[in-house]
Amino acid sequence: MAWKPSPDLPSRLAVGLTLAPLLILLALFGPNWSLWVLLAGAACIGVAETLRMLGAPLHALQRWATVACVGLTLSLLYWMPGPMAAYGCLAMSVLLITMLELALVKDLSHSAQRVSAQLSAYLYCGVLFGSLLLLIRPTDPTFDLTQVWEHQAGWLLIPMVTIWSGDTSAYFAGRLWGKRKLAPLVSPGKSVEGAIGGLVGSALLGALACYLLLPPLPVWAVLAIVIPAAMLGQVGDLAESLLKRSGGIKDSGTLLGGHGGMMDRVDGLIFAAPYFVLARSVLQF
Question: Which pTM value belongs to this model?
Answer without folding.
Answer: 0.90
